[in-house]
Amino acid sequence: MQAGNAHYRSEADLPSTVCMFPLAGALLLPGGRMPLNIFEPRYLQMLDHAVAGERLLGIVQPALDGALRADGEPELCAVGCLGRITSFSETGDGRYLISLQGVCRFRIVQEVAVRTPFRQCRVAPFLTDLEEDPVMAEVDRPALLKAFRAYLKANELEADWESVSRADNAMLVNALSMMAPYGPAEKQALLEAPDLKARAETLIAITEMALARANEDFGTSLQ
């Protein structure tokens, strides 16, 4: 079971209808943490609704092709991730500062007609995210760390290697996926990877392609 999912052991523990928070370029994964600064009025209302209820939000990207509904709202990607509100505070100027912990991915079944200013959808959770323990999953950790080191070097960035060395495979893969500065399509590919091993392989491939493009731009070869 993913860390932090003690509240949710089966589909019966999850609501069938969830508030949707569309965020382009955002990636929340099971067990991951996402801080958010909420200021738009309808999403302030969404937070009030969620905190008074199940404390769950659906983090989902707008459709990658930019498609819009008749009312001008974006269509949504089919797959997102449920996040539990684990911390909540209000600022003096009316904003909410929250932290979400990823619970499990979901597939949107149907958008519900509601009178609330925020959108709600019926969802089907990815139950394998609740059941499996990915900590010891087979991941090519050396290849992942090699790609990560190369990316940091190319972008003149540093990392806390002591923390990286202590992280288990699930924490490492999901944390690197969430913090990677890639675009919406890449983020969605990482979200929809069927398991941790596939997500690690996808992250390595995306990183290697980004490094290859950067080296082509600068007329150098990848070592």
What does this structure look like?
The chain is an alpha+beta fold and 223 residues long. Helix content is 35%, strand content 23%. It contains 7 helices and 6 strands; from the N terminus they run E-E-H-E-E-E-E-H-H-H-H-H-H. Strands 1-3-4-5-6 form a 5-stranded mixed beta barrel. The mean pLDDT is 89.
**Could you give a short account of the major beta sheet?**
5 strands, mixed, barrel
Q: Could you tell me how far the N terminus lies from the C terminus, measured between alpha carbons in angstroms?
A: 39 Å
* Share of residues in strands: 15-25%
Largest beta sheet: strand ordering: 1-3-4-5-6
Derived from helix and strand composition plus strand pairing, the structural class reads: alpha+beta
The parts where pLDDT drops under 50 for at least 5 residues are: none
Shape: globular
User: How many H/I helical runs?
Assistant: 7
Report the strand count. Answer: 6
Which sequence of SSEs, written as H and E, runs from N to C? EEHEEEEHHHHHH
Alpha-carbon Rg, integer: 18 Å
Give the rounded overall mean pLDDT. Answer: 89
Report helical residue fraction.
25-40%
